[in-house]
Every structure is written in C-alpha cells, then in structure tokens.
Amino acid sequence: MANQNLNQDKPIAEQAAQWVVALSDDSQDNGLLQQQYKQWQQAHPEHAKAAQKMEALLGKFDAIHQLGDKRQQILNTSLDAGLRVTEKRKARSRKAINTLALLAVLLLPGWIITQIYPPAYLLADLRTDTGEWQQHTLEDGSQLSLGSRSAVSLEFNDGLRQLKLVTGEILVDVAKDASRPFVVQTPHGQIQALGTRFMVRHSDQQTRVIMLESAVQIDLAKASEPKRIQQGEQVTFNQYAFAGIEKIDANSWQRGWDSKTLLVDDMPLTDILTELDRYQKGRILFNRKQLESMQISAVLPLDKPDQALDLLLAKFPELQIRVVTPYLKYVSLSD
Prior knowledge:
3-stranded mixed β-sheet, Ferrdict_sens_TM, Jelly Rolls, 11 helices, Phage tail protein beta-alpha-beta fold
C-alpha cells in the first residue's frame, strides 16, 4: 500500500487500521511501508496519537476476551496474532492471517468481528466488552458509566469538556464547571449538559437521550433547530430531525440501569433488538422493514440476552430465531 493509496477520506482510526493490515502483508516492501508509516504519523498530531493507541492496543490484545468458548478462544488468538506487527512476531502474524481467514469461513462471517469491534471502538479512550459495565471518575470529577460494548473518546481542555460516544450507551453525572461546557458528541448531533444526570444511547440509526435530572440542549448535526430536554423526558434523533419528546419515569430508568434491565413501554421491536445486540456475544441480525411495526412493552434482562430473546418469543409466537452460528442469530417472522 503506497502512501498515496491510503484512503485519506476515512476517519483517522480506520487509516491506522489500514496501516496495520498493510504492514502484515508479505507481498509488500516492508522497509518502504515502515518509512511511509512513519511519514504518515508525522503528518499530523492526531495520526501519531492514533498510531500510539493502536500500538498500545495490540500489545494488550490478548486480554480483550476470556469468553471460555473454545472456538471463540481460537478465533481471538488468531486475531491477536494477525494484528501484531512487531518484527518479533511477524512470522506468527502471517500464519495467523491465513488461519483467521479459514476460521471466518468455518465459524462465522469475518465481517462480524469488524462490526463488533471496528477501529474507532478499539482506539477509544474508554471501552467495554460484551456484557461488561464500567464506572469512571473523569478528571473534572464527573461520573461516567459505560454499558455493554460501549466506547468513548475524551477531549478535555481549558475551554471545553467533550466526550465522543463512539458506540453504545453511557450514563453521565456531570460535575459543575461554569467555565467549561460539558458536551457529548455523536454522529447525529451534540448534547450539551445544562445540569447533571442523563443517559445517551447511540446506534448506527439514531441517538437517544434520557433525562434523569435537570436538562440538556441538543443540536443536530445537519439541522439548525436545537431542542431542550428536561428531567423526566426522552427524545430520539438522527442528524436531520427529532422524534417527538416522550415522558418517562426517571427513577425507573435509573433502577433499570443499576439492575441491568431494559424497561420498554411501547417501543419498536427493532430498537429492542438493536439494544440486545450489544449484550450478545456475536450479532443479532433482523429484517428491520419486516419487524418495524411491532411495538413492545416489557422488562428484559440485559445481562442475559438469550433469556430476553426467549421472553420476546413467548410474547410474540409469530417470531422465529434462527441460530446461524453460535455467534450469529437472525430474528424474523415465522415462514
């Protein structure tokens, strides 16, 4: 991969991942690539930062998963070896790339891995694995909780406290600092804290804000009309528009977070499956168009996604779940 062939339109995290793939390729002139990789790092401070994160990540990649399933262990070991690019382990890397390709065919589609753990997720400052929750105290004293398979990047400076939600969901209890606004950024818009406590859920399709205390102001990425959300309200939006504001019981949502349960009241089944997908080892796929009209009210255990799916089946016998592999389930209407 010549330097000019690198896709500069991609996010920096993906560019860093491209370099990892290129440096693991036997067919390339490694000396030239190493020189070009160094030039890429020197071209911008953010490039160097992404490269440092990737190198630190690869040094610890063995610890990402301890799943217990033998096939998953084999897959993760192969992925670990295939990604490392140090001279000491290059021979093992090349062999593992071939092994990983074979396992991808035999065990599950290879794209499942990159969908669950895309480069931006792997390079985030804070992240959780499937079924993991974390609690952090930020440098300003704010409290940040991450749900399953979630990732955030932090940028705190003298004038701003910014948290980029890469994927997943967070609960934030914001510390007061009048001189530095606290904002949460997703691809769909910016959420500025006007008080203390709120939840944000981000998926590919939309962002949802659930207000537990005080208020936030939301500015859409591609629209000019901001909206203010108060305690006891939630709203869903994409980069162009808001859905209607809905009333919620803030205490029930807090209890649901604390007990790792999903409380839904007349929520689209597709939104529920998207949420359960983050707690499933592998992927839950579904036909969005086929299922989008189905609305559900339920209390579902997030730490037991298979049990949650069984509860959905009991409520809607017209649903069926096909287990394609241990890591891939497909939900649809019965034939």
